[in-house]
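Summary for the lay section of the report: proteins are chains of building blocks that fold into shapes. Here we show the chain for Glutamine amidotransferase domain-containing protein and then a coded description of the shape we predicted for it.
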Amino acid sequence: MVEQKKYLLFLGVPDSEFAKKTYGGYHNVFVSLLGDEGEQWDSYRVVDGEFPDEKDLENYDGFVISGSSHDAFQDTDWILKLCDIIKKLDEMKKKVLGVCFGHQLIARVKGGKVGRARKGPELCLGNITIVKEAVAPENYFGEEVPANLRIIKCHQDEVLELPENAKLLAYSSMYEVEMYSIEDNFLCIQGHPEYNRDILIDILDRVLAGGHIKEDFAKTSKATLENNEADREFWQKICKNFLKGQPSKLV
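The coded shape description reads as follows.
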């Protein structure tokens, strides 16, 4: 009998009303992108101080660190505790997928620099450029490596300096670091491969209603979605190949 694969999701964000009502929460949003039948997916709401027992980390095949409205350079208790767990997972050579806040936090733990985005925040459908010469078998792209990929962006911070042993995999006109890998156990993405247009529109409506962005900014952001969508299936392939140990056939 094949042993059941187990994955753990660290959630750095509470569920929005929209995510709860439409998907049953962000846990399900991630599992719909990354999960396969027969797998076990557990999640811990680390933003609320909910963490797994460290002795249980060994039982998981891979880990995902979600986005968050908190800054990855903050020193709040839960962020520092998550930093310690990332160090332990690194020592254990476990697979860790970092998304947005997760991408930034891994850079911080591994010696990079994270801070407020120099060109300002981004809430839109963005287009990132793949560093084709950096894409090697361990980077999980498969045989066809695109020049660009579209992904939903939702952040106000960025990785300012990569850790020393990180490999840059993608950049954009707004940010120098859109995606990177470290050895074969960290894959980090600034955008949100798990998001779709409806989730982005809900976020834009909420931050506009809260007075965090102006009407013009929201309009411009929503315009990026016109006749356009994220390359979600390609992102799904990359993330699954990484987490589940299926390297690409590129040489």
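Put simply, here is one thing we learned. The longest strand covers residues 122-130.
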